[in-house]
Amino acid sequence: MSFLTLDHVSHHYFSKDGYTKALHDISFSLKEGEFVSLLGPSGCGKSTILSIIAGIMKQTQGKVLLENKDIQESALAIGYMLQQDYLFPWKNIIDNVLLGPKIHNKPTVELKETAIQLLQEVGLKGVQDQYPTSLSGGMRQRVALVRTLIYDPKILLLDEPFSALDYQTKLKLEDLVGKLLKNYHKTAILVTHDIGEAIAMSDRILVMNANPGSIAKVFEVPIEIRQNPPLDARKHPKYQPLFDKIWEELDSREGDKK
Amino acid sequence: MKSDQQLFDSYLKERKKEKKIVLIWQFFILIMFFALWEIASRLYWIDPLLFSSPSRIFTSLIGRFANGSMFSHLSVTLFETILGFIIGTLGGILLATLLWSFTRFSKIMDPYIVVLNAMPKVALGPIIIVALGPGYLSIIAMGFLVSVIITTINIFSAYNEVDPNYSKVLKSFGATRWQCFKEAVFPATMPTMISTLKVNVGLSWVGVIVGEYLVSKQGLGYLIIYGFQVFDFTLVMSSLVLIAILAAIMYKVVEGIERWLIKHAH
């Protein structure tokens, strides 16, 4: 049974000078625990898809269903990680992490233990009383990850969360996120323009077209690659052929435009 | 070869020296100003009847403080200014919050706010006196009116400039618009609010002094007008000196509050 379904979803942005069609007839579905990447040039509406799934925007056409219920009515928690960490600088780390429960007026005393434990799990011990400014970029993004996970979201939306980090930090975080998602059996959608990252992390890759955003091609990542953590996946013999195939696909689309 | 500590020590010494030079100059200018004034007045370079002199102002102030009259004028003006300042600032924050809460309301109000802001508020003085009567209330209202609109505009635009991604994070947790305001928009605007406080100190003084010009029988603004009418310019100058000192103190206090808030805002 599919867990999340996008059924002929289109989205328009309106302004007084006219409209832009950001998404055209997007249909795909995810099984529970599946990891899917959206790969494509900038401006192809990848982030728009995530905003719609997160319930921040409403699509202009089509349906988005989570466990067969309209996403706007669904009470299932959704975690959203942005390109930058967007930790609140006036809150300390623990308050940042417990933001989700606070919004839902859930008692945070017990969750505090869980939070500290999760922070430890991502390699941040004893930082709970510090403020975001005293942490490095990689540490901050890990705090943002914990903030997303603490509320036990059913789906994780990752909007290029590693793109603002230096290469080494990025690889380490990819490994960490991959491991955590597998352990907690989370469903996730990753938006990226990094082909390697998409292959190393996901089960399926949807390559997108721009103007308007639509799905051009779907690539299945071979099971052998999937079984490896992201860092090792890049060394797998089947990695490079898939990389080349996706590269060709993206390159040909760029060629069409010229 | 100097050691690290020696280098640091000489840096500190350099800093101290610089600070001292600046301070000496500041005192020098102050003393020169009053000395020149005094000399110019005694030698009739300027008319002492019109411009008075520091020594006359000093004796006049001593006398008026001694018999208690100055203190009552001073406290009335101070009370009015502080109240006008507080109400103006809080009112501005409240209005800005209202505008932010109701997007349509802010669109509707836009032209009216532009007009109110462009209008010199002190021109409303006579209307306010007619409406609220010649007393404290009118003067406090003037202090309030001068600062409230500009506060509203500044804070409202600061609300709108808060990075929308903070709200995006909150909305992904299912936050309502009010929760976004409480958790992200309002705290992110704190620095703007604090800097608005400083501007409002000056504005409230303008409102209150003008208000006292127009109507009152008490206060420093009243003393200025009264001194002007009876040709006692020593009194006018004394009041001006007091206003300068009080406004500076108030500004410093607000600055202290600012520093405290920044330190304890977390």
Structural class of chain B: mainly alpha
CATH architecture of one domain in chain A: 3-Layer(aba) Sandwich
How many individual helices of chain A? 10
User: What's the mean pLDDT score of chain A?
Assistant: 85
Largest sheet: spatial strand order of chain A: 6-7-8-3-9-10
Shape of chain A: globular
Which helices and strands, and how do they pair?
The complex is a heterodimer of chains A (258) and B (266).
Chain A: E1 4-15, E2 18-30, E3 35-39, H1 46-53, E4 61-66, E5 69-70, E6 78-81, H2 93-97, H3 99-103, H4 108-121, H5 137-149, E7 155-159, H6 167-183, E8 187-192, H7 195-201, E9 204-209, E10 214-220, H8 223-226, H9 230-233, H10 239-257
Helix pairs in contact in A: 7-10
Chain B: H1 4-42, H2 48-51, H3 54-66, H4 69-101, H5 103-118, H6 125-132, H7 136-161, H8 164-172, H9 177-214, H10 220-229, H11 233-264
Helix pairs in contact in B: 3-11, 4-5, 4-7, 4-9, 4-10, 6-7, 7-9, 8-9, 9-10, 9-11, 10-11
What does this structure look like?
The complex is a heterodimer of chains A (258) and B (266). Chain A is an alpha/beta fold and 258 residues long. Chain A has a domain at 1-76 and 194-258: Rossmann fold (3-Layer(aba) Sandwich), CATH 3.40.50. Chain A is 37% helix and 26% strand. Chain A contains ten helices and ten strands. Chain A has helices at 46-53, 93-97, 99-103, 108-121, 137-149, 167-183, 195-201, 223-226, 230-233, 239-257, and strands at residues 4-15, 18-30, 35-39, 61-66, 69-70, 78-81, 155-159, 187-192, 204-209, 214-220. In chain A, the strands form two sheets. A six-stranded mixed β-sheet of chain A has the order 6-7-8-3-9-10, with helices on both faces. Chain A has a four-stranded antiparallel β-sheet with strand order 2-1-4-5, covered by helices on one side. In chain A, β1 and β2 (18-30) form a beta hairpin. Chain A is globular, with a radius of gyration of 19 Å. The mean pLDDT of chain A is 85. Helix content of chain B is 86%, strand content 0%. In chain B, α4 (69-101) packs antiparallel against α5 (103-118) and α7 (136-161) packs antiparallel against α9 (177-214). Chain B starts with a helix and ends with a helix. The mean pLDDT of chain B is 90.
